[in-house]
Design a protein that fits this description.
Layout (H helix, E strand, L loop, with lengths): L6 E7 L3 H12 L4 E4 L8 H4 L20 H6 L9 H14 L6 E2 L4 E7 L4 E6 L4 E9 L21 E4 L14 E5 L3 H13 L2 E6 L5 E3 L7 H9 L1 H6 L20 H14 L15 H18 L3 H7 L11 E3 L2 H4 L5 E5 L5 E4 L3 E4 L2 E4 L2 E4 L8 H4 L2 E3 L6 H4 L18 E3 L12 H22 L1 E6 L1 H16 L28 H13 L5 E5 L5
Parallel strand pairs: 1-2, 1-6, 2-3, 4-17, 6-18, 7-16, 8-9, 8-16, 9-12, 10-11
Antiparallel strand pairs: 4-5, 5-6, 13-14, 14-15, 19-20
The chain binds flavin-adenine dinucleotide (FAD) and NADP nicotinamide-adenine-dinucleotide phosphate.
The site of NADP nicotinamide-adenine-dinucleotide phosphate (NAP) has 28 residues, from helix 5.
């Protein structure tokens, strides 16, 4: 094995929940690990997304690590859905508790990773001009970490302030007395709009596609409620496919329920609030008629929340419920009842251009002092492709995935031995509670490295047939869903030129079963390269 100050067993790219846990797990195995993080702090999503109103939408008690029962017991969440500062404090606590910071190099972007086939080692180049080598590279770069600002005409001319929700400044801008425009009504828009409306003199929302949102019913977490969860944590964490009891699936289809039963299920889930609508019926995302009943219910509720009936109609989506990632909110629709908030429909008349002083839609300029881009991310592959990753024969990963990502289990891709993705495309990732999936992948990778040591393997890489079969299988699962019926970032629709491929794997329990089977069958579908001959 080569050695030297710049040589590591494992290089991890990114210091969010995934990178930090990978560091902890792999260092606990005695490996030399170095983490590079582009930001000047740890936390990933929760370091970057500091916009007003930013919170998790999976309940805090379940949106947290489960790997150490002592950590689980000692941390106290204050609200049903924790705010961004609280989640960041939690991540910082974890980093200090497990002494992680000493192996994390901040303000350092990984620019390239190139496989040296002769030695089997990865050569990594970072933005500080240094070169590193490692046997393994783990891409913990995040599914939603590459922020997207559309290429609007005239944007460079705009003289006002501009902020993307996913790159919000640490010192939050003072919006008092200002005319603020928000572009985008996905989760980030829906969370930030009520808060921005409280601060701005006037808030103009530029909405291209309305979204479904269900009240979060956020509230302080009573100590007794928290203690009750902690007393039964493992069982409760396993409920709702890892989302906790609120997402515990109702095992019935809409099509086999009476209208009264459908109403009762939806009323109950509405009263509880949160993402539970997603698991209200098993046919929600496969049967258009069933989906329509649920969508009608949510639309009726939106109408109840907005005073102006015409405005309410503009806010009612006509897409399939759950086709885009559903949102949960605190007073989102009620915000449109405020006198200082207006909605501009940019679905019918797209944004024409920016001027020095505002945004032009349908020939009319909306004067603005500040523009907030709640325009989302180049999801799942954006941050991976920003790194120049070259595997066997110098093949560029971006080129290999030109027609869509190809992985085996979302963990690895043929031609790039010893390179792993955490929550990569082809795994449930963004359809799951991400922390569960992160823990599952990191632990799988750690076990795999251990198994490699035991069998004396130098490298692991999927077999071509296994990868092809996995891509086909994942596509077949997605093909039966209604996810194709709308434009979404799951499909790459928000990024011009991105191939239209459904990137996450549909089916959390099935995925769990498949992963376990692969390991039980001696890492079926993976090829191990023996240690002999490797320097
Ligand atoms: P990230 O947290 O995205 O961290 C990746 C890190 O890698 C970033 O810090 C980035 O700077 C760094 N990086 C990327 N490329 C490079 C490079 N080349 N070199 C160096 N560093 C690099 N999921 C849920 O399950 N529940 C929720 O409630 C939830 N809420 C969310 C709210 C928001 C506003 C957003 C944007 C996402 C949310 N998500 C949620 C998804 C969230 O991204 C994951 O839950 C989780 O935080 C991802 O952790 P990660 O470590 O995989 O990636
Ligand atoms: P998003 O869901 O992709 O929403 C982007 C919004 O910008 C959409 O409304 C989109 O409209 C609009 N938009 C994009 N380009 C536009 C253009 N050229 N003109 C006008 N409008 C344009 O992004 P996001 O809201 O940041 O959320 C991304 C994901 O992050 C979420 O789905 C979720 O997984 C996660 N997240 C979670 C939370 C949470 O609640 N915990 C909060 C934020 C984010 P179209 O719909 O018409 O494309």
């Amino acid at each position: 094995m080569t050695s030297g100050t710049n040589d590591y067993d494992v290089i991890v790219v990114g210091a969010g929940f995934a990178g930090l846990y990978a560091l902890h797990e792999l260092r606990s195995q005695g490996r030399r690990v170095r983490v590079f993080e582009a930001g000047d702090g740890i936390g990933g999503t929760w370091f970057w997304n500091r916009y007003p109103g930013a919170r998790c939408d999976v309940e805090s008690m379940y949106y947290s690590y489960s790997f150490d029962p002592a950590l689980e017991q000692e941390w106290r969440w204050t609200e049903r859905y924790a705010t961004q500062p609280e989640i960041l404090r939690y991540i910082e606590h974890v980093a200090d508790r497990y002494d992680l910071r000493r192996d994390v190099q901040l303000e350092t972007r990984v620019e390239s990773a190139r496989l040296d086939e002769a030695t089997g080692r990865w050569h990594v180049h970072t933005s500080d001009g240094r070169d590193w080598t490692a046997r393994f590279v783990i891409m913990a770069t995040g599914c939603l970490s590459s922020s997207n600002v559309p290429d609007f005409e005239g944007l460079a001319d705009f003289r006002g302030e501009q902020y993307h929700t996913g790159r919000w400044p640490k010192r939050s801008p003072d919006l008092a007395g200002k005319r603020v425009g928000v572009i985008g009504t996905g989760s980030s828009g829906i969370q930030s709009i009520p808060e921005l409306a409280k601060q701005a003199a006037h808030l103009t929302v530029f909405q291209r596609t309305p979204n479904y949102s269900v009240p979060a019913n956020n509230a302080p977490l009573a100590p007794e409620a928290q203690a009750a969860v902690k007393a039964d944590y493992a069982r409760l964490r396993a409920m709702g496919n890892g989302f906790g009891p609120v997402l515990e699936p109702n095992p019935y289809k809409v099509s086999e329920s009476t209208p009264e039963q459908v109403r009762a299920v939806l009323d109950e889930r509405w009263a509880v609030g949160g993402l539970g609508f997603l698991s209200a019926f098993t046919d929600l995302l496969v049967a258009p008629d069933s989906n329509r009943l649920v969508a009608d219910y949510v639309r009726d509720r939106i109408r109840e929340r907005v005073d102006d009936p015409e405005l309410a109609e503009q806010l009612c989506p006509d897409t399939v419920y759950g086709c885009k990632r559903p949102c949960i909110d605190t007073d989102y629709y009620e915000t449109y009842n405020r006198p200082n908030v207006s909605l501009v429909d940019v679905g019918r008349h797209p944004i024409e251009r920016f001027t020095k002083t505002g945004i032009v839609v349908d020939g009319r300029e909306h004067p603005l002092d500040v523009v907030v881009f709640a325009t989302g991310f180049d999801a799942m592959t954006g941050s991976i492709f920003k790194v120049d990753i070259r595997g066997r024969g110098g093949e560029l990963l971006r080129e290999k995935w030109e027609a869509g990502p190809r992985t085996y289990l979302g963990l690895q891709t043929v031609g790039f031995p010893n390179l792993f993705f955490v929550t990569g495309p082809g795994s449930p990732s963004v359809l799951s509670n991400m922390i569960n999936s992160i823990e599952q992948h990191v632990e799988w990778i750690a076990d795999c490295l251990q198994a490699m040591d035991e069998r004396g393997a130098a490298a692991i890489e999927p077999e071509r047939g296994a990868e092809d079969a996995w891509v086909e299988h994942a596509n077949a699962l997605a093909a039966h869903t209604l996810y194709w019926s709308c434009s979404s970032w799951y499909l790459g629709d928000n990024i011009p030129g991105k191939p239209r491929v459904f990137m996450p794997y549909v089916g959390i329990p099935l995925y769990r079963q498949k992963l376990a089977e692969v390991v039980a069958k001696g890492y079926e579908g993976f090829a191990f390269e023996p240690l002999s001959g490797r320097g």
